[in-house]
Amino acid sequence: MIKTTGGRMLQSDTVHRAGESIELDVDTQDAGDGQLAAVAIGPKGDAVPVEIIANRNRTFTLKLLTSRGGRYLVNVYFNGSHIPNSPFKVRVCNPEAIWAEGPGLMDSFVGDQGDFQVFTRDAGHGTLSVRVNGPKDKFRVDMWKGADRTVNCRYNPEVAGKYTINIKWEDEHIKGSPYTIQVRKRPDNK
Predict the structure, then answer these.
(1) What's the CA gap between 138 and 109, in Å, rounded?
(2) Cβ distance 47 to 41 under 8 Å?
(3) Is the distance from CB of 165 to CB of 130 less than 8 angstroms?
(4) What is the pTM of this model?
(5) For residue 29, what are the β-bridge partners?
(6) What is the pLDDT of residues 87-144, one digit of tens each?
(7) What share of the chain is helix, strand, coil (3-state, %, to 5)?
(8) What is the spatial distance between Cα 21 and Cα 62, in angstroms, rounded to a whole number?
(9) Nearest residue to 143 (alpha-carbon basis) of 92, 102, 86, 83
(10) Which helix H or strand E contains 25, and what residues bound it?
């Protein structure tokens, strides 16, 4: 019998971060003689190496180093057959692969709609959150899906002052966030 213990790879509800080493411990002591092998399939269908470290007493640590966001399938074999619960599904996010742009992230005037887009295509699994805080505390932000995993965002500043726009993926700020902008009263044209 083969046992898997510890290791964050077993936590199916966990979203891992790209660049992290994700580990799984495998105990083959009660399985008899045999060969342990592992291969991961990355989000683009490519093979991703899995390092197998032999410990004592026929136990092993498997290490998967992810480079981008998405879903990975980790296939672990003993004597050519899947071990229990293999393949392991590993969800990975990459907040550094996300960016935002648009006029709503720059200084503007009261009454101008704050429109911007968040590009999440290469981010992998995760949840996007957008919060706008201004002189009147929090503002409602309308969000809707665009093409190619783009999220369109809009808020309506009605009061002059300093605004902070927090854009997070899996509770981590994306590049450039938080954004701080100044909303001014429109000058009178008399």
Answers:
(1) 18
(2) yes
(3) yes
(4) 0.71
(5) none
(6) 988 888 888 889 999 999 999 999 899 999 999 988 887 889 999 998 876 678 999 9
(7) 10, 50, 40
(8) 10
(9) 102
(10) strand 21-27
The type of residue at 141 is V
Paired tokens of 141: 């932000």
Cα radius of gyration (the chain): 23
Q: Which two tokens stand for residue 106?
A: 């720059």
Record the tokens describing residue 157, joined without a space.
């500043």
CB count, 10 Å around CB of 112?
A: 15
β-strands 114-119, 99-101 pairing: antiparallel
CB count, 10 Å around CB of 170?
Answer: 19
Average pLDDT, the chain: 88
- 18 phi/psi in degrees, rounded to 5: -55, 140
| Tokens standing for residue 178 | 């938080």
Whole-number pLDDT of residue 63? 92
Query: What local confidence, expressed as pLDDT, does residue 143 receive?
Result: 94
Residue 111 backbone dihedrals phi, psi, to 5 degrees: 95, -20
Question: Measured between alpha carbons, how far apart are the two ends of the chain, in Å?
Answer: 85
Spatial distance between the Cα atoms of 10 and 14, rounded to a whole number of angstroms: 9
pLDDT in tens, 50-92: 999 999 888 899 999 888 888 899 999 999 999 988 998 888 8
